[in-house]
Each structure stands twice: as C-alpha cells, then as structure tokens.
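User: Fold this; tokens only.

Assistant: Input:
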Amino acid sequence: MRWTAWLAVSGVMACGLLSVEGCSRSSKTKKIQIVLVTKALDSEFWQRLKAGAEEAAREDPEVALSVLAPEREINIDQQVAILEDQVLKRVAALAVAPAGVAEVLPVLDKARAAGIPVVIVDTDVPWPHRVSFVGIDNRLGGRMAGEYVVRAIGGRGKVAVIRGVLGVATQEDRLAGFREVVADVPGIQWIGAQPANSERALGMSVMENLLTRHPDLRAVFATNDQMALGAMEAIAARNLTGKILLVGFDAGREAVRAVQAGQMHAVVAQFPERIGRRAVQEAIKAARGLPTEKYVDIGTALVTKENAGEFLR
C-alpha cells in the first residue's frame, strides 16, 4: 500500500513538475496577439501601411501581428466578418481601418464588451471608445488639392472630382475640403463628384464619361491614387496629357513617377508606413494597459514635379 501510494504521489509530483515547466515554457513563448484589419490589400497604399505595421511588430519580440483585409474596399460585410472572428478569438488588441461606419460600429462595440482595445486607423469614426486614432487630416488634404487646382488653372474653368466609396469618412472629408476651396472662386464651374469606389478601372471609366460630356473640362481631382491613375490613362487615350489638370491623393510610387513625368500634375501625399507603424505601436501599448495617444496626425504634403524626387528615395 505504501509503495502504491508513493508511486501515486510521485506520479502527481512529476506531472506537477512537467506542468510547471510546460507553463514556464509556454509563458516565454506566448505572444501578444495584435491584429490589423485594413479596408483592402489590393493597392500600394495598403501594402505600404502593412509594411510599416510589420516593421513595428518586428521591433517587439513579445508581439505577433496578423494583417487581414477584405478583397476589395467595397466588401464591407467581409470586413465585418473578419472583425467578428477576431473578437471571438479574443486577440489582445485590434487596429482597424473601417470600410463602413454604420456596419463596423456594432462589431467595435462587441470588441469593447470583450475587453479588446481598438485603435482606429486611417478612417476616423464617431466611436468614443477608441484608444487612439492614427491617420491624417483628410479635409486639409482636400483643401491642399483645391488650392493647387485653383492656382494652376487661374481660378477659371470646369472642375470635377472622381471620388471613392460613398459614406466613407476619408473620401467625404477629402471631397468636402476640396469643395470648400473651389466654392469660393467665382470663375470655377463645379461639374460634380462621380464615384469610382477607389478602383483604377472605374476611375478610367468615369474619366472617359467626363471627357465625353465635358470636352472643355479644365481640372480633375481624384481622391485616391488608383482612381487618379485610371483617369490618367483615359486622358492619355485621347491625347490630352498635360492639357487637363489632374491631381491625385496618396502619393504611391507609381503616382509620384507620373507626376515626375508630367502625366499627372500633383498628388497629396500620405505616409502609409508611418500610419501603420504608429497604429501598431499604439495597439501594443493598449494591449499592455499603458497610456495611448488619443489622436495622432501623421501629416500630409503636396507632391509636384519640383519635389517628386524626394518621395521616390
């Protein structure tokens, strides 16, 4: 009986020792799970933002980062499903670039109820529980584009906008900022804003329609690079390169090279690597229960032929 009891106790002790050792090893290898959910990964902007986020995660050996996104920016339901899955997994923190406000807010509330801190990235939303917002002042960027257009065309002529998905805050703010400027110029004839869902092919199609309906069009502002590049192709197809002022937004390398080559006139620059990097840094702080910066404006700049080379280094 005593021998049997000793074996039983020894077995329990051994299991306990193994368990403690296993827990110790597990605690050393278990990482803080941060998840960045963007609107898409199908453009240079989102790829660069992802690269900045991954750089920040690599600097912290205790962090594991996942970057997830729907196939296209208009696939809002897909983004919601991704977020709901991450809430169920109870990740340590989320960094989210909301594709749609009304659709995403309920799942952000679920994240809060689950105790998951949320950093809002790129596109601000009216949600008071975010631990931080990291992005730019898109309204200011729109104003910068408007001021450039007014100067470049001498304050006279027909002007149009090719815009992204309706209802998305970044797109609404860029358009609003642009219109604030051009509305105050008596010689500007406002043609309107046509949606192209931030997609290159749609940008080209919308531009073709604008050129057909308004052959005397003087200037176009496209509220992201992809639409601007599509518009550039439509303008080139009609041998109008340089004759119609074209301004984009984001300043990816292809768009900056187009400015340098005279195929586009200007582009409002974001700094996506900085946005992604800072968003992950704030998410890591939130996951550790540390104070975060509530509003981080990364800043903007206007890229023209004169300074384009600086943005290609």
